[in-house]
């Protein structure tokens, strides 16, 4: 089993910049699954340290030939969700996949946000129907 460095990195880079990490980090051992042949583990707060480490060993060639400090830090990502909380995150770009064309929509216009809002405004309406003994299956 190959252990993952809690500071971040991959199976080829083991370094330690902090003498003692958070209590949780000292209690866990992260490892790669046997099927995983490559990958990188980065805690959000340790990317800077990992990029500095790669620079110090002259390892930028493995990452496109440029220092990781001058490349994207991966601040953008795609999340598939029905969560109205995530859909309503300030500045989030929400795209609907419900129709024949993928289109950008306002979070408030999504069925998931509308249903949640309507339920929270009048839960008895929904619960009455759900709990009715003669409801159709």
What's this model, at a glance?
The chain is an alpha+beta fold and 137 residues long. The protein is 28% helix and 7% strand. Helix 4 (111-121) crosses helix 5 (123-131).
Which features characterize this protein?
two-stranded antiparallel sheet, 5 helices, 7% strand
Describe this structure in words.
This protein is an alpha+beta fold. The chain has two domains: 3-70, no CATH class; 84-131, no CATH class. It has helices at 23-27, 47-56, 84-87, 111-121, 123-131; strands at 3-4, 30-31, 94-96, 103-105. The strands form two sheets. Strands 1-2 form a two-stranded antiparallel ribbon. The longest helix is centred in the C-terminal third of the chain and has 11 residues, at 111-121. It is elongated and about 70 Å long. The mean pLDDT is 77.
Layout of helices and strands:
Layout: E1 3-4, H1 23-27, E2 30-31, H2 47-56, H3 84-87, E3 94-96, E4 103-105, H4 111-121, H5 123-131
Antiparallel strand pairs: 1-2, 3-4
Helix pairs in contact: 4-5
What is the molecular shape? elongated
Number of helices: 5
Average pLDDT for all residues: 77
Q: Which spans have pLDDT < 50 for at least 5 consecutive residues?
A: none
Secondary-structure content class: alpha+beta
Spatial separation of the terminal alpha carbons: 50 Å
| Count of β-strands | 4
Domains (count): 2
C-alpha Rg, in Å? 23 Å
| Major β-sheet strand ordering | 1-2
One letter per element, helices H and strands E, the order comes to: EHEHHEEHH
